[in-house]
Design brief:
The complex is a heterodimer of chains A (about 400) and B (about 375). Chain A is built from 14 helices and 13 strands. Chain A is of the alpha/beta class. A two-stranded antiparallel ribbon of chain B has the order 1-2. Chain B is globular, with a radius of gyration of 20 Å. Classes of the chains: A alpha/beta (about 400), B mainly alpha (about 375).
Chain lengths: ~400, ~375
Amino acid sequence: MKIKRYPFLIFMLFICMLLFGCWSKKELRDLALIIAVGIDKKDGKYISTFQVVNPGNVAGATQRGGGSTGLPVALYTSTGDTLVEASRKASKQISRIPYYAHTNLVVVGEELAKEGIQQIFDVVERNPQFRPTANIVIARKQTAKQLLSVLTPVDKIPANQMIKTLELTEMMWGENVGTRLREVIESFSLAGKEVIMSSFHVDGNRKHSDDQENVRTMEPTARLRASELAIFKRGKLVGWIGKEDARGVLWILDKIKQTVVTVDWKEEKEALSYKVVRAKTKVTAQLRNGKPIIFVTVATEGDIGETFVAIDFTDPKQIVALEKVMQQEIKAEIEKAVHVAQKKKSDIFGFGEVVHRTYPKEWKKMKKMWNDKYFPKLDVQVKVESFIRRTGLRTRSYIQ
Amino acid sequence: MERARISARQLFMLAILFEHGSAMVIPLGVDAKQDVWLAILCGMVFGVGLLFVYYRLFTYYPNLPFTSYSQRIVGPFFGKVLALIYVLYFLYISARVLRDFGELLLTFAYPETPLFILNAVMMLTVMYAVYKGIEVIARASQLFFFSLYWILMLGFVLIIIAGEIDVRRLQPILEEGWPRIFHVVFTQTLYVPFGELVVFTMIFPYLRKEEKVWKAGFLALLLSGINLAMIMGMNVAALGADIVSRSTFPLLNTIQEIRVANFLERLDVLFMIALIVGGFFKVGVFFYAGVIGVADLFALKQYQRLVYPLGISVLFLSLAIASNFAEHIKEGLRIVTIYMHVPLQMIIPIFLLLIAMVKHQKKERKGR
């Protein structure tokens, strides 16, 4: 009898050990999946806004063809001296545990960005739930809360809509760029690189942006739109850069994947569009008389997209002439971007890091004064090589 | 010593898993900033020297573990004292690695579970493996060697596909010159993980073919050195030297960066598997060496009897050695390195080797 009982007891003990795995179990229905976090600051306190996914309504919307009753997301706001405090305090309103593993987007209000964003990233790094791959955007002329309280029609979850818009426009047009949290944190430690972030803006009437009415109309009254790039300097927003200038920044950063460059041809203004299919940028540094010079070399390859003037594309000489015009246009964009950044005294291109890598010894002297002394007067030589490979389905245009 | 035999291939795999163990996941030699991979490679080169010392000692006494031949070299009394110190060292390090392992799991995956539970589950598994003997541990290493390698390769390919590697982050090379690298080598990377191979002086005698010890040990050291350098180099190339040097587990952060085609992401589980497999073998080998050492020292026939009491001691020691993570790490980097790793991995083995050489030369002369 005695011999038989012991193995059974040990067996029972082992079964108990398996239960350790359930120590801090959390049921899915007890979690509040936070898809986006908005951060503002008012009177020295952080205001966190949480966009929480309402799973039932997201699934329902696709099944019932969009006519579901509830909203796909809910918004909660909470204040605290620190972000962790604000997050915990949110439990007063949310019935579920805030869960950050699916947070893909962090929105920072413009006011806070001007004040400085360095503080807000510590918790993001420290917390094991948070993902460093999350994107960060600035709410242009708005608070983060206002930006997060806009319902969107096609992609039901507004945060996803913003991220996908950002990805798409970066790929197709190239005036905006997605910035990951990790890149921001990394830039804080690099003396020769400042960070840029895309901003979003609410177009139209903001009054009923968070109402279901907003997505019932064909053209929503309030719409989210990617806007200028925010220039940061040591964690503080110092200026904006938009339109072609913003694209100039992306050219230098080698982030342009595809875009369209429109150029003048002879007397005709904005007459011809060039679709860039591939682009590659190289940035190198040289020291001359102890002063750094930066060389930016851009190579692009693409097709003719559209023309308003009569050009004979069968003639290679014309193509070469056109390529020259393209090069001038892209070069001008890049030079303008450099000019804007130099005026703001913020090395958003990472030229300093290029110098650091090539001349580590000399860099040590320049390091401290880089943004304020060296970068604004930096000699930047831009060289662009554009190639037009194909002209589409037609050679000459019917326009004569 | 138990009556067991392992093959050279098993020794090789066991040593590889042992070397990767916790070294793969902790911020190894990050004080060298972007040159960390160089610091690891240099550590490996000097590590080969240490391994050679252990190997030479083994060739003089191919059938004895360290705790026995230390008595032959410096006499029964001092030899026993020395053996006792080594046995305590092995058990202490196994407790340290166990604590490392528990802290890592606690920090990132099980924030609410008590440390005791995680350590206990791990230690019970280790105790079971050690109870079963070195042959079982060696066979398990054969099994896990390939799974760990697959995970490593998968992670490597994915991180490259995800486009997170930017080799420019490794530049400028030698920014602060060689002094910084050698400082890191001689305060950190030489001892952990390469010098820790001293524990294998307890395991070499089990080898079926003694002439293959050098080949297996050397290759394992070489391969794991290169692998570790690659892993840390990859961490820096993906995250930047600053984040790596501030991170508690750089490899985890690197794996979190992986994002391929919008669905291959959040592969933290790869990290978990690597951590648990590596942790198991590192704790296991140290603990086994400690247990065998005690049995050898006190001339016990069956070492199995020691497994449970010593295992429980190690478990409680792992909880008692530090009251928080910072203390634990600081102890590991400062006190343990200076007062344990340097004398026990380097000075004493070299001394023993010199004495053994002199003794053997005398013997040879007498023989003539």
